[in-house]
Amino acid sequence: MASLNRLAIKGIRSFDDKSTAVIEFFSPVTVIVGHNGSGKTTIIECLNYATTGDYPPNTYKGSTFIHDPKMANEKEVEAQVGLRFYAANGTRMLAVRNSSVTDINTNLPKMHTPPNSGILALADENAEKGIATKFADMNTEIPRLLGVSKAVLKNVIFCHQEDSYWPLAEPAPLKKKFDDIFEATRT
Length: 187
Prior knowledge:
The chain is α+β, with helices and mostly antiparallel strands. Helices cover 24% and strands 24% of the residues. It has helices at residues 40-52, 135-146, 150-157, 171-181, and strands at 3-10, 21-24, 76-86, 92-102, 110-112, 118-122, 130-132. A hairpin with a 5-residue loop joins strand 3 and strand 4 (92-102). The longest helix is centred in the N-terminal third of the chain and has 13 residues, at 40-52.
């Protein structure tokens, strides 16, 4: 069975770019508790980003997901999300995604995700062997390693609070969600 081991967050929303916050996950469950604005939702968003490559809703393609350069008094903020997990086959894995945002004196900062800015590797103490370095590869490989579809990760396991009412949607969008989750296709 797949399981999450550790999440490292740097430069995402309220997590500044000067230090890395590390969250350990315990079996069988980890409870995340905190005051409003303390980063509970950001942790779930980072888990979703690490596993699917998708930015949270309403973040303008991720530009407002990264710590605001104006808040940091910097021209650019570099962000990193790292996830150590056990794949469904028991293999210990490490996924790291990097992005940056630059303040260009407009209402929205400019998002930049450099090529090969992520890595998926075996997280063995003796050797680290890379599996995928392109986001597109990681976006398909990580859900496969976890043994669940991207739709299940996005809509069930790491469902954003703004999207949590999808089971109450109109019939057509609801059917599409269920088709995605159950990987149903028309024949």
